[in-house]
Write a structure and sequence with these properties.
With about 120 residues, this protein is mainly beta. It is built from one helix and nine strands. The chain has a single domain (about 20-119), classed as Immunoglobulin-like. A hairpin with a 6-residue loop joins strand 6 and strand 7. The longest helix is centred in the N-terminal third of the chain and has 6 residues, at about 10-15. The structure holds copper (II) ion. Copper (II) ion (CU) binds next to loops.
């Protein structure tokens, strides 16, 4: 699989025995490590648990590390396990999605992954 993804929940799994209940990234659109033709309108992250909207964040960084999303991140009201942010038109390149999720179980997980925009 291309691209890179990291999740730093290991520490918390040791610290909290009910670690299985954390909000882990289930899937995303664009998918983790994917290459997509054309610029996506938004990035959507589905977690394994519902999120606390006020403390859950997602940023999209361009190949220079600059934040390019519209800074309008939100947790979907109908599906509180879905965190999303919208994007302007993106030039071809590798983008990094950096997320931090506060689950309704009060635990925090964080991670990042990349996707490629190809012409
Ligand atoms: Cu938890």
């Amino acid at each position: 699989m291309k691209g890179v993804w990291r999740v730093s929940a290991l520490l918390m799994m040791v610290a909290a025995p009910e670690a299985g209940a954390h909000a882990f990234l289930d899937h995303a659109a664009p998918a983790v490590g994917s290459a997509i033709h054309g610029s996506p309108a938004q990035v959507r992250l589905w977690f394994t648990q519902d999120l606390e909207p006020a403390f859950s964040t997602v940023k999209v960084l361009d190949p220079n590390g600059s934040q390019v999303d519209k800074q309008d991140k939100q947790v979907d009201r109908a599906d509180p396990s879905l965190l999303q942010v919208s994007l302007p038109q993106l030039a071809p390149g590798r983008y990094r999605v950096v997320w931090r999720a506060l689950s309704v179980d009060t635990h925090v997980t964080e991670g990042d992954f990349t996707f490629d925009v190809v012409p």
